[in-house]
Amino acid sequence: MSDDAISRNANRSTTPHNSAFHGYISGDWAKVDQPVAVQRDQVPFCAERRRALSAEFAGHTLVFPAGPMLVRSYDTHHPYRAHSAFTYFTGWGSDTVPDSVLVLTPNGTEHDATVYYRFPAGRGTEEFYSDADIGEFWVGPRPTPEGVAVELGLATRSLADLSDVLAQADASWAIIREADSAVTDTIDRARGTVSTRDDELAVFQSEQRLVKDAFEIAEIRLAIAATAAGFDDVVGTLAEVTAHTRGERLIEGTFNRRARAEGNHVGYETIAAAGAHACILHWVRNDGPVRDGDLVLMDAGVEVESLYTADITRTFPVNGRFSETQRLVYEAVRDAADAAFAVVKPGIVFREVHAAAMAVIARYVSEWGFLPVSLDESLSESGQHHRRYMVHGTSHHLGLDVHDCPQARKEFYKEGIVREGMVFTIEPGLYFQTDDLTVPEAFRGIGVRIEDNIVVTSTGAENLSVGIPRSADDVEAWVSRLS
Ligand code: GLY
Ligand code: MN
Ligand code: MN
Whose C-alpha in 90, 315, 336, 421 is 20 to 30 A from the C-alpha of 103? Predict the structure, then answer.
């Protein structure tokens, strides 16, 4: 056991350390047959992704750490989640062994790919029974190197060998810096410098991920199907939700139950916002009641085992009927979403999607008399008054990260050309704060967002989440049918 682990456990009974005990617990274990390893579906896709990387970084050693367990408090940890770049190039998802590192070593104009990870320690080690962080008695078995090699189609080496490898780092190496600070520090010390190659690697892999391959699109479809089931679960429990003083928590719990049952986890904290909470864009405290007459804004996504996530929002009347004003706002947002969807096709500039939604949002709030300036003035760059009611953007890329490809340069993201295979959200909204004196009282406290996930096709786009009711009529029918 590490000194750290011993001192942490000083006040609690711990495993014995005498040699008789060690000898006894180390023996009499049956040889366990390993399941037959099968290559995972993503292997050829990951190989192709690594080939594109090789072409760009010929001669450079590239390092992708999965990252460590993150401490939640004292000696408890957050559920483990590998860094997305590691998963993108290895295909190792929710079952990644913490602290693993992918190293791509130049071999001519290509690279050899090796995943370093903590091999099973064996029953004869103290680690097995006494290390609460990594011991297999505590946290479960680790896969064999032979099994990992087959499943991921990668060479495997023990994590114990990694420090010697990293000690050889020089200026030609590049690492995803934020994934594991210990690995980054080791490489920085060895090469004596922070290389600009690190930034180039971060940007390149981010931009590479802008266009999804067939495996990724299939996984996002699975994530959306599980998310749709989670939305149905929630709508099916609204009677219980309204009866509880913290109905928002029940919504979160019900959705997250589905996420854990069908996927790895939620892809981000579930937003379960009832009534005026819907006007708080990232309301994740979710500790409020849900009352008759409220709209519920639920923004949630299941992350599947391969770590791709959905990101979907629906806003629904808890009693099954929109009020007149709620319906007005709802259909305006839907109109904006439909307008944005209608412009999507290969060749447009990404920001045009946002512009299409904003033109509709601005028109409505202008017609309703909320703007202090003309519609044209509000839509001009020096105006933008309508954004008071929707301060967020309309679209972001979606994939392994809910806000995917964040390090892509502006000219490839916001100013980039939309291409077939891109997956992004369309998520306009209108939020009228309870204390907003620019809108009539009837509008105050209403928040609506509709968020869909779309994939760009050769001629337009497919709304992947269209099966979750969207129109006001369909939403009412949905709530009436299930609740
Ligand atoms: N759920 C966060 C977002 O919609 O971007
Ligand atoms: Mn969302
Ligand atoms: Mn989103």
Answer: 421
Q: How far apart are CA 360 and CA 450, in angstroms?
A: 14
Q: Say which amino acid occupies 80.
A: Y
Q: Are residues 320 and 349 in the same domain?
A: yes
Which structural domain range is residue 187 located in? 3-208
Q: Which residue has the tokens 């080496």?
A: 157
| Amino acid (one-letter) located at 23 | G
Asked if 372 and 413 sit in the same domain, the reply is: yes
Q: Do 192 and 219 fall into the same domain?
A: no
Residue range 20-33, pLDDT digits in tens? 999 999 999 999 88
- Measured from the alpha carbon of residue 312, the closest ligand is 2
Is residue 401 in contact with ligand 1, taking CB distance under 6 Å? no
Place of tokens 């409220």: 294
Q: Do 388 and 475 fall into the same domain?
A: yes
> Is 60 exceeded by the pLDDT of residue 308?
yes
How close is the Cα of 311 to the center of ligand 3, in Å?
5
Element (H, E) at 272: strand 271-274
Distance from the alpha carbon of residue 308 to the mean position of ligand 1, in angstroms:
14
Number of domains in the chain: 2
Q: What are the residues facing 297 on neighbouring strands?
A: 273, 315
pTM: 0.97
The whole-angstrom separation of Cα 141 and Cα 131 is 13
**Beta carbon of 216 within 6 Å of any ligand 1 atom:** no
Chain-centre distance for alpha carbon 22: 43
Which ligand 1 atom is the nearest neighbour of the CA of 313? Answer: 4
Check whether residue 225 and residue 157 sit in a common domain.
no
Atom 4 in ligand 1: residue holding the nearest Cα: 311
Q: Is residue 331 within 8 Å of residue 428, measured between CB atoms?
A: no
Q: Give, for 103, the enclosing helix (H) or strand (E).
A: strand 101-107
Atom of ligand 1 nearest to the CA of 396: 5
H helix runs in 274-421, sequence order: 324-343, 351-367, 375-379
The rounded Å distance from CA 281 to ligand 3 centre is: 11
The ligand 1 atom nearest the CA atom of 299: 1
Which tens digits make up the pLDDT trace of 67-106?
Answer: 999 999 999 999 999 999 999 999 999 999 999 999 999 9
Domain boundary among 161, 184, 208: 208
DSSP 278: G
One domain, residues 106 and 126: yes
Place of tokens 């050309």: 417
DSSP code of residue 161:
G
